[in-house]
Specification:
The complex is a heterodimer.
Chain A: H1 20-24, E1 40-46, E2 52-58, H2 60-63, E3 68-73, E4 109-110, E5 116-122, H3 125-132, E6 136-141, H4 148-151, E7 167-173, H5 178-186, E8 190-198, E9 210-216, E10 221-226, H6 231-243, E11 250-253, H7 269-281, E12 285-288, H8 291-297, E13 304-312, E14 318-330, E15 357-366, H9 380-398, H10 402-409, E16 416-417, E17 423-424, H11 429-439, H12 445-454, E18 458-467, H13 475-481, E19 489-495, E20 501-505, H14 514-526, E21 533-536, H15 554-580, E22 588-591, E23 594-597, E24 603-605, H16 606-614, E25 629-634, E26 643-652, E27 659-669, H17 676-696, E28 726-729, H18 749-768, H19 782-789
Parallel strand pairs in A: 1-12, 10-11, 14-15, 20-21, 27-28
Antiparallel strand pairs in A: 1-5, 2-4, 2-6, 3-5, 7-15, 8-13, 9-10, 9-12, 13-14, 16-17, 18-26, 19-20, 19-25, 22-23, 23-24, 26-27
Chain B: E1 2-8, E2 11-17, H1 23-30, E3 49-52, E4 55-58, E5 71-73, H2 87-94, H3 104-117, H4 123-129, H5 141-150
Parallel strand pairs in B: 1-5
Antiparallel strand pairs in B: 1-2, 3-4, 3-5
Helix pairs in contact in B: 2-5
Classes of the chains: A alpha+beta, B alpha+beta.
Keywords (chain B): 2Fe-2S, Iron, Iron-sulfur, Metal-binding, Oxidoreductase
InterPro entries (chain B): 2Fe-2S-bd, 2Fe-2S-bd_dom_sf, 2Fe-2S_ferredoxin-like_sf, 2Fe-2S_ferredoxin-type, Beta-grasp_dom_sf, Diverse_Oxidoreductases
Pfam family, one (chain B): Fer2_2
Amino acid sequence: MPKDSVAGTGIGASTKRREDVRFLTGNGNYTDDINIHGQAYVHFLRSDVAHGRIISIDTSAAAAMPGVVKVFTGKDFEGVGSIPCGWQVTDRHGEVMKEPAHPVLAQGKVRHVGDPIAAVVADSLAEARDAAEAIVFDIEELPAAVNMKAALEPGAPKVHDDLSDNLCYDWGFVEENKGAVDEAIRNAAHVTTLELVNNRLVANPMEPRVAVGDWNKSSDDYTLYTTSQNPHVIRLLMGAFVLGIPEHKLRVVAPDVGGGFGTKIFHYAEEAFCTFAAKACKRPVKWTSTRSEAFMSDAHGRDHVTKIELALDKDNNFTAIRTETYANMGAYLSTFAPSVPTWLHGTLMAGNYKTPNIYVNVKAVFTNTVPVDAYRGAGRPEATYQLERVIDMAARELGVDPIALRRQNFITEFPYATPVAVEYDTGDYPATMDKLEEIADLAGFAARRAESVAKGKLRGLGVNCYIEACGIAPSNLVGQLGARAGLYESATVRVNATGSISVMTGSHSHGQGHETAFPQVVAEMLGIDASMIDIVHGDTGRGPMGMGTYGSRSLAVGGSAMVRATEKIINKAKKIAAHLMEASDSDIELKDGKFTVAGTDKSVAWGDVTLAAYVPHNYPLEDIEPGLEETAFYDPSNFTYPSGAYCCEVELDPETGKVTIERFSAADDFGNIVNPMIVSGQVHGGIAQGVGQALLENCAYDENGQLLSASYMDYAMPRATDVPFYTVDHSCQTPCTHNPLGVKGCGEAGAIGSPPAVINAVIDALNSGGHKVAHMDMPASPSRVWAAMQG
Amino acid sequence: MTKVAMTVNGKSVSREVEGRTLLVQFLRDDLRLTGTHVGCDTSQCGACVVHVNGEAVKSCTMFAAEAEGASVTTIEAMANEDGSLNTVQQAFQDYHGLQCGFCTPGMVMSATALLKDNPKPTEQEIREYLEGNICRCTGYHNIIKAIMAASGQEIPAIAAE
């Protein structure tokens, strides 16, 4: 059994997850499980070319097919808004980014494989698919912009005809530092230069996206059921910017959601389509993505091409970092796409190290590919990978120990203001590295390498650190940086007459276990059992405004809102208790679910107070209102900064180039922890995704923009045989200083920290066998490794 | 339309369906047994695993008509008679072997079939058996632990946390 570090159901207990029971018995309620009486089904006809001009679309034959309700094309959406982008980046010359229109269905041109051309709504899915085959269309195929650098060359095919070129923005950060950085690099004793690719990935939550639109003809209200990490954000984006439906007429429900990893943050055309079509067809309209469709319509992740230079003085102190990155936006700007390579990436380039001069340049590029946006870590894995790879490379060039080089340059005093505009509140990087050396048994590595060599294999060790900025984000700050929304979170704590509690939160759980962990916090504060508390989430009709779950923000921001609302509950409940016991408010103490008058044996139970709130016969009505329900909005004053040190040990078969992960260890500092079992699970899953990026996964396009990896036959997902048992530890805890729980967030760490550890280990293995390989791009597939060994 | 009849979770059922109806569509759309999931369209992910005549089958790879006369068991029938979780289900909860829950029904059905054939599988045997079940959340660590525990075996020390 998982060990319980703390008894009971409060903070620190590895409480078993209550949501598991419905998932284990087939009683989950995912969006595709929702069927509304009379619903019709939509099938999207999608472009099979990367770039083309729509000459004609004839839907008359399709419309006459059996079961067809209506066939839609881009013309039907001419009066409808563009799918909006939620973040406006300003470039290094003070100009705002280029922001092309993104129609619900293609208008004039198709711009990537998968761009929807038309949509057939029919009585059954099979009839919709059959009818889509009967649509006659003529698309003039155009040359495609695929490679980012080529797309910026003069004369390159333009993704958007109304833009001057394919450059979305040219961002410099911090622009004023550029001169000092250039000078520090000129004066350095040593400069290590690394060019690398952060490979394009597909998030691949196991549940494909689904949308069910419904329209109520008597009230003119809409309901959208959708696979979203943030239903309120979808209500805002779709209601206000695309369809023009005010909030009180639009309810968005995201029930059980089968994983998100970022790609279910964004507002997608299919959501707007189903909502719009429900009214147009006067029937509920359901869309269920196939996996093949998901590969060409879910926003992809990563896809950066970077050159990084690390300058060191004669004593191996880091003196400067300069980077130049090309970041793929794909064909349209997805919801948060512009923020990922900029504010979620550039601000992290200091990592765990005191480098005085840093300059980051990012050129965001439109291409004829699927839009690229946040995927688990979002910008922070890209920053960590380049930094931790270039440090390892520098250590190898200089002939020094890579761990010692890191330790020498660690930030050790907090708070620490980086040269890239963020202030780390707490951390203890030597402590996490110490813990890593212990749990990874680095002392035993030499013996394990000897065993591998005796078997004819190579063995490599890779270590790295990471830092991330989580708990996204202070609204006033992100507003200055271009965010078009606030990034607070809300909670309503509704105490019922019998003392049971419903907590309405704007955070959304799609695997993170909020239904179990959030009640632990409230139970701890009130001294009652967590089983009396339920979490309500994922429904704009049942909770206040919320911003959702991404950026490891749920507990740090959503949990903090819940703490603030619970504090208000306690304050009011104490007033009621004081009245019942004829005592002063200030003398009331709440402990173990009981209110007592300090220094006396007088007490009233939790349930007595909650009953009095709703049956106020003996109640201070002249001072306070009946009822016991409070709402709080929490807006963080800073990001949180989880950090850690990771270690990967690989064995490499020189005959085949195949790399196997033999050991993987992670020492994380997440600040305070509510449910250790859930935290470990989050790290495990993140590591597997990072290992997937490093060894297996690659979203590949050919030079014509044809998507080559559009199913699980071609896109290598990590399977049980690809990963080992992991050793994870989160006993190093430097609590966050600015949120009430002292928590930092743990959702993305594994995916951020693991890719450089794997590649560092692969490079170490190769060099241990006499192969002078300085770098290898991900994924380190057998063919790439084998080719590298041939020189 | 074709009439198909089979036993599902101990109950006789029959429906008129199109010949192209897959078993998973029959279970989800015709019988409203939505615990069986569809995670891909190439028979790779295993979210749709059910038992057909006691054998683990990806229900997206066979037509409903091919299950004519068969006995089909889905995740909805796996709990104990009193409604409590069975040994495999309970181990998944105890060891946090699921997060979003979407792959979970397939994992439980595959694990059950494995333990029927091989009551004390090694870690490697479990990993190899689960080749056809993809999980994106757990990194497999706690799934392997849960299955080892369900088979009454000790968990390796390296997997303690």
